[in-house]
Amino acid sequence: MGILNVTPDSFSDGGRYADRSAAVAHGIEMRTDGAHVIDVGGESTRPGAGRVDAAEESRRVLPVIRDLAAAGVRVSIDTTRASVAAAAIEAGAVAVNDVSGGLADPDMAAVVASSGVPWILMHWRGHSRGMQQLAVYQDVVAEVRGELSQRVDAALAAGVAAEKIIIDPGLGFAKSAEHNWALTRHLGDLISLGFPLLFATSRKSYLGALLRGPDGTPRPAGERRDAATVATSVLAVAAGAWGVRVHQVRDTADALAVWTASGAPRLSS
Ligand code: PMM
C-alpha cells in the first residue's frame, strides 16, 4: 500500500502532494513501483494534529481519487468520517482505511456494510491531539488484541462481512517506541485473531529515535527513515502480515521480492 497524503501538514510528506496533479502523478508512480493500492488521506493524524472539517477533507481527496480511479489505480480512502468514506467510494475508492477502527464515527460501519468494500480497522484510543496520553498499558500486546477484537465484533454486528475485515495494530497511535517494538515481536498473537493484518511503520518517529545521531538528535522524518521502514516491513511480512503501508514503495517492493524469491518460510499466517 502506497501512502498519498493530500494534506499540508502530514509528518513526513505534508504539502508535497497538496496539488491535484502532483498527487495523481505520485499515486501512479507508486503503482508503477509495485503498490497494489494507493491510500489517499486528506487529514493528518500525526501526534498532536488538530482536525479539519469534513468539507475540506472531501475537497482535498475526491478529485485525486476520481483521477486515480480513472487511470485504473486501486485506491483506499484513509478517513475516520463516514460521509467522506461514502463520497470517496462514490468517486471510485475500493476500500476504507479507518484509523479509528470505527470508533470515531458511529455511521462508518453502515457505510462500509452497505457498500461491501474492505475495511481496515486500526487500533486506536482517541484523536491525535491527545492520543499519546492514552499510551498506558499493562500488557500492550494483549490489550491491543482485545481492543481490536472488540472492533471486529462491532463491525460484524453491524453487518460487515468477515472476509472484508483487515486489522492493523496502529503503530505510533497511543503507543510509545517500546509498545511498537513489543507489537512487532508478537505480531503472530494479533494474526491469530484470524484476519489479514496490515502493518504501517513508514517513517514513524520511533524509527527516528532508533536512528538518532551521536549527539542524540532523532533522524528527521523523511527519506532517511526509509531503510528502517523497509526492514520493519519485511520483518512483518515474514511474521505473517498480509500487507504493509509505506511512503517509498519501490525499495519495500524490491525487498519483498527478494524475501519471496528466497523461499524463507512465514512464521505465522
Ligand atoms: N498511520 C498513519 C495514517 N494512516 N493507516 C493505517 N491503517 N495504519 C497506520 O498506522 C496509519 C494509517 C500515519 O500517518 P502517515 O499517513 O503520514 O503515515
The CATH architecture would be Alpha-Beta Barrel
**What form results from the Cα inertia axes?**
globular
CATH superfamily: Dihydropteroate synthase-like
Head-to-tail CA distance between termini = 19 Å
What share of residues are in beta strands? 5-15%
> Helix count, per DSSP?
10
- Give the C-alpha Rg: 17 Å
Word description of this protein:
By secondary structure, the protein is an alpha/beta fold. Helix content is 42%, strand content 10%. It is built from ten helices and eight strands. Strand 3, helix 3 and strand 4 form a beta-alpha-beta unit. Helix 9 runs parallel beside helix 10. The two termini are 19 Å apart.
What is the fold's blueprint, element by element?
Elements: E1 2-5, H1 20-33, E2 38-41, H2 54-70, E3 75-78, H3 82-91, E4 95-98, H4 108-115, E5 119-122, H5 140-157, E6 165-168, H6 177-185, H7 187-191, E7 198-199, H8 205-210, H9 226-238, E8 243-244, H10 249-262
Parallel strand pairs: 1-2, 2-3, 3-4, 4-5, 5-6, 7-8
Helix pairs in contact: 1-2, 2-3, 3-4, 9-10
Record keyword descriptors for this entry:
single chain; alpha/beta; two-stranded parallel sheet; 8 strands; binds pterin-6-yl-methyl-monophosphate
